[in-house]
Amino acid sequence: MADEFDVIVIGAGPAGENVVDRAVRGGLTAAIVEERLAGGECSYWACVPSKALLRPIDLAGEVGRVPGLSLGPIDTAAVLARRDEAVSNYDDAGQVRWLESVPAELVRGRGRLDGPKRVRVTAEDGAERVLTARQAVVLATGSTAVVPPVPGMAEAAPWTSHEVTATSTIPERLAVIGGGVVACEMAQAMHGLGARQTTVLVRGGSLLNRMEPFAGELLAESFADAGIDVRTHTDIARVERPEPGGKVTVHLAEGPPLEADELLVATGRRVATGNLGLDTVGLPDDAPVEVDDSMRATGIADGWLYAVGDVNGRVLLTHMGKYQARICGDVIAARARGDELPAMRDLAGGYGAPQVVFTDPQICAVGRTEEAARRAGIRVRAVDYDMGSVTGAYLQGDGYRGRARAVVDEDRKVLVGITFAAPGAAELLHAATIAVTAEVPLDRLWHAVPSFPTVSEVWLRLLEAYGM
Ligand SMILES: Cc1cc2nc3c(=O)[nH]c(=O)nc-3n(C[C@H](O)[C@H](O)[C@H](O)COP(=O)(O)OP(=O)(O)OC[C@H]3O[C@@H](n4cnc5c(N)ncnc54)[C@H](O)[C@@H]3O)c2cc1C
Ligand SMILES: NC(=O)c1ccc[n+]([C@@H]2O[C@H](COP(=O)([O-])OP(=O)(O)OC[C@H]3O[C@@H](n4cnc5c(N)ncnc54)[C@H](O)[C@@H]3O)[C@@H](O)[C@H]2O)c1
After folding, report:
1. What's the pTM?
2. Which partner for 324 in 26, 308, 329, 359 could form a disulfide, CB atoms 3.0-4.6 Å apart?
3. What are the tens digits of pLDDT across the range 355-381?
4. Which residues pair with 422 in a beta bridge?
């Protein structure tokens, strides 16, 4: 086996895999180092299993709104079995076959930088192999869940996203700490799959506090209707779990303690830069790897180091990591040919990445919120529309509730942000992403006629609300 490649990628998650794909298409050879499963966090412990758990709940909501249809109780065992199938039973043989077809060499073990253009890989059995890169090393090691330093918390061995997405049992009483995306999605999944008492403990004043405020409000209403208890302005003082895996008591800063059968901590992520050898190339190992818009690490002589996906801290979303990876792989191949490929740079991140939170209602946003746009110094006007008033939405079923907001740049007359909070809104988002990213002028957008009777008619209503 050769130990020299044009490109060496550390981390075979969605970002790393896309780098090797593009670099090899560009005529280079590539190796990819992975310490767990090829496919990464996304495929086994994040996006894929979480969405497999949420889909039946989403559908149950849809069915429940249509008179004449009824739904029996959700068969939790069948849902968990489908989740197992979706994660290929935690077997990466399919991903390995794909890597072979690229072709790229999968090197199993933990990768670590060992000075410029060198990667030392330690296999599970302790065997070491040193790889050398002719062109570039790419870091794609992702991120890990943060467990806050609350007394007793670490000892209680709480669930993080890893355990909740892979669970084979549903706790009767679940306490969730955090009000972000993982907390909201997983609280709804566990509750829908049978948790009797689900309590979401939120430090701040709302759910999903980086989105438009109405999104968190509508979601909180939906949680309340479903019997999920959301407690805002709640700080955790300490956690107690005398028996491993037994009952857990969450002592709050104020009020009586909360007892649960399981505790899920969903308080954000930390970039996976620990023990990655960044010190051997003069970079800090406790911060995101800062990159320019070609994904090349700043502050490295000769520019041979790149970082894509969660590890560069730009946007912690799979589709954005893959976008960065396509740029990175193409740019490395072009630079190897002596070309800069200047059109291949990260533009999308600057607009505000699209994101779907797969709860019921789905919370979908792209671009900037009204507040973020104002903070960025853009002169904006926001217009809202009640999505339940659209004929297409009424026809989706009774009790369809939702709201949309368009944020218009008043100087350029283009959209700089869109948010939809409504059932089934995920598929509306790409049209918004095109409008925002392509900076479609409003007087042109007006001629994009939505079909009747679809929920997309909300686009027309938003433009009318703006005064068109
Ligand atoms: C519960 C949950 C649900 C999510 N849902 C969505 C969603 O619906 N949509 C979305 O866009 N995003 C979602 N995300 C975010 C998404 O999972 C991440 O943005 C994405 O996985 C990042 O991809 P990545 O390739 O950068 O890293 P990862 O997927 O984390 O992959 C990194 C890989 O690197 C390996 N690795 C790390 N260090 C080393 C090393 N030193 N040597 C060898 N290998 C190493 C790891 O084992 C891992 O396989 C979710 C996250 C969570 C936690
Ligand atoms: N559908 C999706 O796109 C999807 C789904 C899940 C995760 N993700 C990605 O994964 C990332 C991680 O998600 P997440 O929900 O863990 O993080 P997050 O940053 O979205 O939310 C973290 C939450 O924890 C709270 N928090 C932080 N520290 C705390 C503390 N010490 N005590 C109490 N509360 C605390 C924050 O106020 C916030 O409400 C997100 O950035 C998101 O991009 C995406």
Report:
1. 0.98
2. 308
3. 999 999 999 999 999 999 999 999 999
4. 362
Element housing 319 (H / E): helix 318-336
- 279 DSSP 8-state letter: G
Does the domain formed by 4-39+92-144+271-337 have CATH 3.40.50.880? no
Cα–Cα dist 393/400, whole Å: 7
Q: pLDDT averaged over the chain? A: 97
99 CB within 6 A, ligand 1: no
Domain borders along the chain are 4-39+92-144+271-337, 154-267, 361-466
**CATH code assigned to 361-466:** 3.30.390.30
CB within 8 Å of 290: residues ≥ 6 apart = 297, 298, 299, 312, 313
Check: complex ipTM more than 0.95: yes
> Which residues share a beta bridge with 420?
364, 404
Cα–Cα distance for residue pair 430/447, rounded to 1 Å: 17
Q: Which residue has the CA at smallest separation from atom 45 of ligand 1?
A: 11
CB of 265 within 8 A of CB of 178? yes
Q: CB of 165 closer than 6 A to ligand 1?
A: yes
Q: What is the pLDDT of residue 70?
A: 86
Is any ligand 1 atom within 6 A of the Cβ of residue 171?
A: no
Task: Check whether the bond before 116 is cis (ω within 30° of 0).
Answer: no
- Residue keyed to tokens 């433009």: 463
Closest ligand relative to 109 C-alpha: 1
The span from the first CA to the last CA of the chain, in angstroms, equals: 65
